[in-house]
Amino acid sequence: MNKTIITVVGKDTVGIIAKVCTYLAENGINILDISQTIVQDYFNMMMIVDTNKAAKSFGDMADDLEKIGKGIGVVIKCQKEEIFDMMHRI
Q1: 4-41 pLDDT, tens per residue?
Q2: What is 3-88's CATH topology?
């Protein structure tokens, strides 16, 4: 399994989850876990996804999601699980 961590942060607005999830579904990316919170007017979501059957490369997926984020006024970042784990190791 190829796990990727996707984070979405920004001002809350209608359709953030829908746009991200639609992109993932259309590209064969399975959501394994998802958590989202809204603190005052700020939206924060973290997803763990399986990119094993993804239609696009990791780089293309990350670029596409970044563009989607810009279009809806949020910042979307993708990291491979092993990189995320190394960065957050104590």
Answers
A1: 999 999 999 999 999 999 999 999 999 999 999 999 99
A2: Alpha-Beta Plaits (3.30.70)
H-helix segments, 10-57: 16-26
Task: Report the alpha-carbon distance of residue 33 to residue 47 in Å, rounded.
Answer: 6
Residues 42, 12 contacting (CB under 8 angstroms) = yes
pLDDT tens readout for residues 47-70: 999 999 999 999 999 999 999 999
Nearest alpha carbon to residue 26 among 64, 73, 63, 59: 64
The separation between CA 13 and the C-alpha centre of its own chain, rounded to angstroms, equals 16
Phi-psi category of residue 10: left, alpha or beta, with phi > 0 → left and psi -120 to 50 → alpha = left
Alpha helices in the chain (DSSP H): 16-26, 58-72, 81-87
Q: Could you tell me the pTM of the whole model?
A: 0.89
Domain ranges of the chain: 3-88
